[in-house]
Amino acid sequence: MKYSLLGVLGLVLACQLEAPAQAVKSGKPASTKAATHKKAAPASEAAVAPPAATLVVPSWLPPTNPVQPAATIVHDLLDTKLDVRFDWSRQWVLGTATLTVRPHFYAQNQLVLDAKGFDVKNVRLVTGNKEKNLNYNYDKKKLTVTLDRSYTRTEPYQVRIQYTAKPNDLEIGGSAAITQDKGLYFINPQGTDKTKPRQIWTQGETEGSSCWFPTIDKPNQRMTQEISLTVEPGLKTLSNGLLISSKRNNDGTRTDTWKQTLPHAPYLTMLAVGDFAVVKDTWQGKPVDYYVDPRFESTAKAVFGNTPEMMEFFSKKLGVEFPWEKYSQVAVHDFVSGAMENTTAVTFEQSLVQFTARELPDVGYEPESVVAHELFHHWFGDYVTTESWANLPLNESFADYSELLWAEHKYGADAAALVQQEKMNHYLEEAQSKREPLIRYRYASQEDMFDRHSYDKGGRVLHMLRKHVGDEAFFTALNRYLTQNKFSTTEIAKLRLVFEETTGEDLMWFFDQWFLQRGHPELKVTHSFAGNQVSLRVQQLQDSTFSPIYRLPVTVTTWINNQPTDHRIVVTKADQTFRFSVSQRPNLVKFDSEAQLLAQIDEERTQDELLFQFTHARNYLQKYEAIDLLRPKNSDLAVSGMLRNALSDNFWAVRQAAVLALRRYKGAEGNAVRKELQRVAASDKNSQVRATAISTLSAFINENYAPIYTAALNDSSYHVVSAAVQALAKSPAIDSRERVNSLQETNSHEVLNALSGYYALNGNSIEQYQWFLRRMSDVSKVDLYQGYLPNFATFMLRIPAVERDKGVQRLESLARTDPNSYVRLGAYKGLSILASNMPNLKTVMQDIRNKEKDAQVKAYYALMQ
Fold this sequence. Notes:
Number of strands: 29
Low-confidence stretches: 5-50
Structural class: alpha+beta
Strand content: 15-25%
CATH superfamily of the largest domain: tricorn interacting facor f3 domain
Helix content: 25-40%
CATH architecture of the largest domain: Sandwich
Largest sheet: 8 strands, mixed
Strand order of the largest sheet: 5-4-8-2-1-11-14-13
C-alpha cells in the first residue's frame, strides 16, 4: 500500500498549523553518572528534600491505546470460490461464495465469518453434489453459522452462502492512507459523468474484503481462490491469478473466471471491471499486463515498461524468483489510496500512472517508485505476510525501501540518496507531532498503522541495518527470511532471528531501539583539534525519558590534503567523546559520512569546512548539506562561487538546490548570478530545474524577467509553463496577457491550476468567471484542493457581488456532496475565503461541518478554523 496523497496533504496542513512549541525538544539527557553513586541522605535531610520535578510529557507522546494482538485462528480458511454479478443502478454485488475451511486445532461446531452490510439469502453445507441448509445468526457484521456437527482439524468442509452486498450502505470509515473502507466501489455507475469511465474496483486492506464477500478478514489467514465475474459485453475484467475461462451467456453477458492457485491473505483479493486497454508484456514467460484507459494505451509502457526488469532485479537480489502466476497492473479512477499490492493484480490511482506523451518528461521518479513499491510487496506482504497489523512495517518498510534499491540499481547512488533524503524528511515531519514504535501492539485502530513511521521510518531503519551488516549479509538474511516463511505469516522476532543466524551477532539491541521503541536520536556533534588529535564530541539530546539512548555504529571521515580516512565508531552514551590521531589539522571532519543514520544531527562546521565538503563530496547528500547550510551566506563570494559551480552539477537535484539557495541573492556577483539563473531557466535539461529557476527569478523584487517567463510559455514541459504563469501572475506583463489567455483550453491539470492563480490575482472579467466554472471538472482532485477552488474564491472577491451566486452555490454544493475528500476540503477553503466579505457564509460553513460524516475531513475543518 502506498501512502495516499490525502495523508500527505493532511500531514502538511497539520504541520503548518501546529504550535511552534511542538518542535522544541522536550527535555535534556540525563546525567551520565548513575544514580546509585550518590550517597543516601540522612533522615533529617530527606525530610526537607525538594519535591520531585514534574514530568513534562512531550506533545508527540500518544495516548495509551489497547493492546491489539494477532487474531486468534479458530478456523483455517483454505479456499474461496466466488460467483458475482453487479447491479449497477443500485450499486449492489449479487454473489455466491463457497468457502472451504478447516478447524485450526480444536474441534468446532460453528463458523464465524466477517460479512459487513449484506443481505444473506441462505447458508448451506456442501458435501459432494449435495447441499444442506444451515442455521445462522447475522448482525450485519458477523455471520455465525451453526454446523451440522462438530468438525476436527483433520476434516475440511465447505459452506455456500448466497448474499447481496451493499457497500454504499456502510458507515464511512478509513484513514489517511486508505481514505474509505467500504471494500468495493462503483465509479460513475450510470455513465452520467462524461469526465470518467464506468468502473468497479475493490480495495481490501485492511478489512474491506468482507464488505463484498464473506470471509475471515484477518491477515493471518491464507487461501487459494477462484472468482467468476459476470459483466456486460464490452467491459474487461481483472482479478488475482490467471484467466482460466471466458464464456458468453444467453442474456448477452459474459462470465470471466480467474483462478489463483497459490494462497494469500483475504485482504489481497481484488477485482476490477471497466473499459480498459490492455498492453501486454512478459517476464520469464509469465504474463505482465498493464490495464489503462484507452487514451493512455500509447504511453502505458513508458510508465510501466520497467516492470520486467524490476522483476528480474528483485528476484536476483533476493535469491527468490517472483513466485506468482502473473503480474498485472491496473489504473482506476477515484481510488481510495495511492496504490494497492493485490496479489498478481496491483491497483493504482490513475493520476499516479496515466500521462500523455507531453506530461511524461515532468513526472520524474514518482510513478516508477510506486511501481517498484507495489511489486516488492509480492515478496514482503504477499508471499510473506504480517501476522497482525501491529507488525505492518514487515510489509511496508520493505516495500518503501525497494524504492531506494531500484533507484540505486537503475539510476545510481545520487538518485538513491535523493530517495533517502525525501523519505527521512517525511518521517521527521510526522515526528513533530507523533512518535510511535515501529512495531506497536497498542493502537486505537489498525488504520492508524498506515503512517510515515511504518513506511518512511521503517525504510530508513532497514537502510541502517543493511549498512551495519553489509550487503552480502543483508540480502542473505532476506533470502533466509523469505524462504523460511514463504506462504505464511511473520512477526518481528522472525526477522531478527534470521539476521542473527546469518551474521552470528546478537542484534536485540538494534531491533529493540529501532523497531520496539519510539523516537529517534537528536544529536549535537562538535569537534576540535589539538596536539595532532581530533576530539569529536557526540551528545544525544533526545528526551531519554520517552526515547532510548541509542547505540549508533557510524563512520566518521577526516580529510587531510584531499585524502580521506574513515573511522568506525560506536556511540553508546548520552555524551561521548572520541579521539583520532592525525598528522595535521584536517580540512574536514565529517560525522556520519555515509549518511546512514535516521537522526536529527546538528553538526558544527566552519564555512571553509563546508566549502571543502562540497568540492570533495562523496554523495549527493553531502553536496546538498553544504548548499543548505551555506545558503544564508550566499552573498559571500566563496559561497556564491560554489553555488554557481553547483548550477552545472551532473545531478539535477544538486542544480535545483543551488537555484533555490540563490533566491533573492544580493551579493557582489548579482549580474553574473542572474545571468546564470536565466541560462538555467531557459536551457537546463531537467524541467524541474528550469521551473525552479523561473520561480527563483520571480522572487527578485522589482526586477523584470518577463521575456524569460513569456518565452517559457512555449516550453515543452507543462511544469515549466506552469511556473511561468505563476511568475507572470506576480509580475504581469501586458504583452504576455494574450499568450496566457491562449492557454485556457490546455489539457494539463497543472497549467489549469496555475491559470487559476493568475486570474485570482489579475482577473476580473465575466469571461474568466465562466472559465473557472467550465474547467472545474477538468482539474485533478488534488489541484482542486491545493489551488483551483481557493483561487476561484479569491477571484470572486474581485468581481461584483451580484455575479457571485452561481460560483458560491457551486462551492457549497461541492463542500456538501462531492464524494471526494480533496474536493470537499478545497471547496470549504474557498468558502472560508469568501466569508471575509460574505459573513452569511459562516452559518453555511458551520452547517457543512456539522453534517460532514468523514472524521478525517472534520478534523481538517477544525485545523482550518
